[in-house]
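To whoever is on call:

I kicked off a structure prediction for a single chain this morning and the downstream step that reads the tokens threw a length-mismatch warning. I double-checked the sequence; it's 413 residues and nothing unusual in it as far as I can see. Pasting both halves so you can look.
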Amino acid sequence: MITVVGMGVSPGAAPAGDVAAGAELVVGGRRHLDAVRLPEGARAVVLGALAPALDTVAEYVAEERPVTVLASGDPGFFGIVRALAERFGAERLDVRPGVSSVAAAFARVGLPWDDAVVASAHGRDLRTAVHLCRAHPKVAVLTGPGAGPAELGAALRDDGRVLVVASALGSAEERVARVTPAEAAGRDWGTAVSVVLCLDEARALGPVRAVAGPRTGPAGWALEEAEFAHRDSMITKFEVRALALARLGPRPGDLVWDVGAGSGSVAVECARLGAAVTAVEKTPDGVGRVRANAAAHGVDVRVVHGAAPAALSDLDEDPDAVFVGGGGRELPAIVAACARRARRAVVVAVAALDRVPAAREALLGAGFDCDGVLLQSSRLAPLPGDVTRLAATNPVFLLWGVRPHGRTEGVAP
């Protein structure tokens, strides 16, 4: 049997002293080993690289000799329980959890966390955590080397969030600091950081929930045009939006660009599906409409006022997927610029037949696999006399390019 003990994040998380009683092998970090009384004759292994430690555990398990593994907080929450269960089977584990660092951090600031998104940046790409922080009002980020408060703050300087940095939780050196992203970026936080909370303070309390975790996905998408403010029906129609969303595949942890956003209907729909979104729009009134539509649907959309492709050079981070609407004579250059940077897919809506070949060539020239359809739909429309006719919408070409074996597979594991 392998006994897994969570300790150290909160006073009383696990009793000091005899938690390893009876074990012949005790595995844990140096501070955890120093906090317990090792049984006489027991072997201690300082947990560094995981594979050698698991190999040592395997030797003792094979001989049915008792093992104790010490970990911080709740070892079943982004912790060592997963690796132990995969290697030895869950039936061999006796897990005794403590208080997780996430639960402790939210407790320190007096907030519930049943509606929080939790991301681990420990040994993972920080970009996933950054995009979740941009898209959701309450996110906890488990930090790691090169992915701490300073790096997170640098990425979130312009996003209006507050960071709560919790360091050395449960110890005499515990510190909880509330800072702006810019302040976080300018400080050396050392190695004792446990977790960073990223909060939109106006929405941090959140409504009463029946299901834990981030807000559930929308009940529907490809919303009616009437759900958005727009000018003279210049909006991506819901039939086109439905297929565009399917090809974009926006997910939590993704970054999506909506270039030539217009009303921002695609941007808003991607944000409703959990992605971080940047909308690029060249007209001042269009910028206002995108912001108004995002606010009306309760989502965060970053809006950049500028004309593509020039405005794209000001966007620091490459997107996972891009939607391009409009574009005029600049469309081939816009598509090419987006394709150079998109990690997974580019979707282009084109009304003019003449522009289709050049847009397709731009996708193919960037090495994308390219496909497309002409969408033509007719909607039911009432006529006098309680009868119905079919009203045709304008046909639209929808092209999409997918990067072969894309540079990313989405949310980090």
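Update from on-call: the warning came from a stale cache, not from the record. Cleared it. Sanity check on the structure: The chain has a mean pLDDT of 91.
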